[in-house]
Amino acid sequence: SEPTIRSGPIFxxxxxxxxxxxxxxxxxxxxxxxxxxxxVGQVDQSQIGLPYPESLGWLPYGTPPAGFAPGSVLxxxxxxxxxxxxxxxxxxxxxxxxxxxxxxxxxxxxRRAYDVIFGVGVVDDGGEAEEVxxxxxxxxxxxxMTSECDSGLPPADMDESYLLxxxxxxxxxxxxxxxxxxxxxxxxxxxxxxxxxxGVFVNKTVIKDWPRFPVRSFMIDTSxxxxxxxxxxxxxxxxxxxxxxxxxxxxxDDHSFPFxxxxxxxxxxxxAFNQYTHVYSREDVAEVVEYARLxxxxxxxxxxxxxxxxxxxxxxxxxxxxxxxxxxxxxHIIVANGPLDPTRNYTYQFMENLLGExxxxxxxxxxxxxxxxxxxxxxxxxxxxxxxxxxxxxxDYAGLESFYIQRLLxxxxxxxxxxxPIVWQEVFDNGVNLDDSVVVDVWKNSxxxxxxxxxxxxxxxxxxxxxxxxxxxxxxxxxxxxxxxTADPTDFPGTKEQKKLVLxxxxxxxxxxxxxxxxxxxxxxxxxxxAERLWSDASVNExxxxxxxxxxxxxxxxxxxxxxxxxxxxxCANEWPRP
Length: 579
Fold this sequence. Notes:
Elements: E1 4-6, H1 25-28, E2 79-88, E3 94-98, H2 104-118, E4 140-145, E5 162-166, E6 170-175, H3 178-191, E7 193-194, E8 200-209, E9 215-221, H4 229-241, E10 246-250, H5 266-271, H6 282-293, E11 298-302, H7 312-315, E12 320-326, E13 333-340, H8 345-361, E14 366-370, H9 376-381, H10 383-391, H11 397-413, E15 420-424, H12 425-429, E16 439-442, H13 450-459, E17 464-466, H14 481-485, H15 496-500, E18 502-509, H16 519-523, H17 526-535, H18 543-559
Parallel strand pairs: 3-4, 4-6, 9-10, 9-18, 10-11, 14-15, 15-16, 16-17, 17-18
Antiparallel strand pairs: 1-3, 2-8, 5-6, 5-8, 7-8, 12-13
Helix pairs in contact: 2-3, 4-6, 8-11
């Protein structure tokens, strides 16, 4: 039988008001129970390609509230032909995959899209559609792929392009493969609107869409504070909604080592905040990787070295360099731990074994090796490292780091599953001899601006990812998402060939002051501003035009139980999950 998912009873989110909204309540209660947003700005619907159909008759006063962008899409599609003609979705609405065999990725995508549209856990009871004033009925959305449905991992070069057509009676998502089909389903769910009676409808639409950059990443830090699995999984849901496709998992650092290694169990036994409650087992990692796979999201782990490794030394102190200093009276030598010891063969054997295990547990084709903020002062304090440098003809401490990184890259090159190494920009800045396969993440804005760094990295022939302007852990009062929205990874002097080496960018959430209690509201919807700049055309760069769509996107997340914070005064119609 053909793989299908049939819809069920219409889901109508509750409408909530607080005591500050009671004035004018009679008018407000008549508004459609959709993901309703208000803010102080006035919206020009023509700017988002969505004429608002006043002629439908179900809006009580004709025009939408300021900042209300029902049926808008974020990230904004590349090509969009929209109509004011609407089609109702009956309870018998279904998704169908045609032109080939099904796969778990596609069927799970159908299920999620259905739940977003009609409500989680609803099943078909054979009833009729709620009455919605429309020009017809959309009975089915077909998905047609020109290649076989892929149940594997999303590759680095995944094709995410799609064509979405919604005509009379039927709709169609056409794509080369499953990853583009998933993006088309997300767009379809965002086009859905809801009438005042809870009925569901969509405008006749044709959208042709594809991403500007292949890497649209979000970095999470689970060392400075532990993030529970539920938070990470909800974050992946939000990433899928924003069409972000890489989870950069900065899993360990100085503060804790929560990854449970079977090869070196004392890394987490001694290095985690709590070896029983604040750890990620292999099964936990597999759950995250699988959850991400079904949403077309890659999981790229980072095990940063040779710096940021103090937690490693709690279980294996012999790994770390010994930093020497004197007490306040100058009478006693104080020994402290520093970066990994680059002079001992033991260090490289340890890294070979650990990376071999990581290679088994994290299946993506890329591996983030770190290399940032190495404390050279530690090596400078101890004659042992100076003697080693003299013996090996190493001129400075950047050269000693380069010695370590070169051997680490050699270990990565010998892994059974071939990996693309990614490093922080200091590795490039310190003159490490890197081949063109190494990707450089540009995260600093000093001593030179990131634009200059991007120019130098790409002129050297390296592919680059930009994160410098998108540190979401830095917060400020007001609409700080606007500064994220105006950044562009190709905004640097360089040739067309250099610009082609820009893989994309990533939003970063460092965890000094972020844990599971505040991660999601701090990340969303601000990360969606980054997501749009990395997906949409470069000309889509006006914050005022983006604001109503970002408001609407935020309310959609809230209606799904993701506590995205507001970006301006106002409210969402469905501000809390239903009990």
